[in-house]
Specification:
Blueprint: H1 3-28, H2 33-49, H3 56-68, H4 72-85, H5 90-102, H6 106-116, H7 122-133, H8 136-143, H9 152-159, E1 165-167, E2 171-174, E3 183-188, E4 191-197, E5 204-207, H10 208-213, E6 217-227, E7 230-244, E8 247-257, H11 260-266, E9 273-277, H12 279-282, E10 286-290, E11 295-299, E12 310-313, E13 315-317, E14 321-328, E15 334-338, E16 347-349, H13 351-356, E17 361-363, E18 381-390, E19 393-402, E20 419-421, E21 430-434, E22 439-443
Parallel strand pairs: 4-9, 5-8, 15-20, 16-19
Antiparallel strand pairs: 1-8, 2-11, 3-4, 3-7, 5-9, 6-7, 7-8, 10-11, 10-21, 12-22, 13-14, 14-15, 14-18, 16-20, 17-18, 18-19, 21-22
Length: 445
Amino acid sequence: MSGPRRAARACAAGVLLVMGVAPVLADWLAPDASYREAQMQLRYATRDTVGHADDVARLDTLAAALLRIGRVPEARTLFNRVIATKPGDPTASAALGKLALWADRTAQAESLLAAAGDVDQARADLYATRLRRGDWAAAAGMSEELGDEGRKPLLEYLAGANPMRITGERAQVLFERPWPAPLLKVRLNGATVLMLVDSGTPGLLIDRQAMIVNKVREIGGQRLAVWDGTRVAVRNAVVQKLQIGDVTFEDVPAGALSLHKLSLEVNPQAMPISGVIGMSVLRRFDVTFDYPARRFELAPLGSAAKLTGIRVPFELWGEDELTMWGSIQAGRKMAMTFTSGLPGGGVGAPDVVFEELGLKSGGVSKLVKGAGTWLQGRPWAQVNVPSLTLGNMAYDKLPGWSGAMEPVEMWRHGVRRDALLGPGILLRRRTTIDWTRRDLVFEER
């Protein structure tokens, strides 16, 4: 074979190699298909709005496309413009109601969402608003419509009771074990048990066996509950008495499920985990995770307003999901939900998010070998996250979990959410949730 012919064949092979590899690299470092579709919708909406700045329908479409991929300030400006031009516009009312819910302005959110009708997830957001406000009767009336009919017996029970009665103003409890997840000894109906503190679930979860042994009241019905980026089936229940240090909660709504696998993975060969303390309890106090002192604290609402430190604002999405905006490895801005019970993790995300960032799995973690199997039935892969920024907070070399969030949860609220933030962000500082100002406060020592 002549030299020129060999060179031509080598060149052709090189072209084929590039053609074969380039798409793989592009897919690996590109956003997933659902995000690319949202970007495409934004491009179309931008194009269609040029020259039609007074067209309310086009402005609605553009603002909705901006909101969907997290460009919140621009979307809010356009929706306010629509409302000023056309008061009561359903799409703008639904979006502004969602943003009011995120800001925990629930009265304003309910007014806007009720006026919006059934557009743009307005009914789902209205349901979440009523759950957050404790308007149990109104929520019960919507539960079947929103596919949450299994919760209706519990909501009807709560509507006729006086739930979440609280005595005591402050509590300080040492962590039984702070890592890979924060565990506390508390009292359940008078018995000392071990519970995990997890801001990644809206309610209180109780192990089925612990429910039987400690005579927790079971209410009819079974439903799906949010837990760390997925949905799990639980039976409705009400805990008669939960004591955290010197604070007592009575008649706490709960969901019962098996926590046996969680105990084996997070606290092996030790006291079993009898429950998960979620947001329905945590929202009643300013909450401090003092990892350097290995201490968990509850203080009256408003106490954290005087704290000094680095403040990172958060929003409350849906029923009660504490969500912050940040960036992984200096990439695009992402919405991330704080889940203090994510075992042994700083960041958890669907596989496609880490693929977009070019972060590959480093194998199964030695710390929690079966992480993920207790929650989703499949193991998560360990990922080393080089850097993370949250407002003015910066982290490097955080442990991560690929697969630790179901892809469907990315769009659950109609706006892109990419990741979960685990207890890894708490390790080096005393950190307090300031519900009044809606900040996570990281105190310097």
